Amino acid sequence: MQTMVFTGRLAADPQISEDFAKAVFRLIEKRGVDSAGKDRLVGVNCVSWSKGLNEKVIARGLAQGCEAVVIGAFIDTSYKARDGAERTAKELVINRLTVLDWAEDRETDTGLDDRAAA
Q: Which of 19-28, 86-95, 105-114 has the lowest mean pLDDT?
């Protein structure tokens, strides 16, 4: 199993199960521009199965636009698309997460200082 390191910004707020057992988010990284002058974006779907990490860091400190470094391993996941076709996707299963840019103004939403919680 290979360990991968990916740095990027969250494309949207993380999706977290009610019991904090699973968290999913997508990291996007800009990698230059293409020949037409448009931004070249690379994205990776990340999944965390660590209840403590999901509850204490991801739910409280990450939101769309936050920057993070994720270390983990890629796995292939099969799923059924809306049109009924079977598809596969790669997910980066998180082993380590470092938040570089915490969500702003989250203290007013939760009443907690997110940086102290992490």
A: 105-114
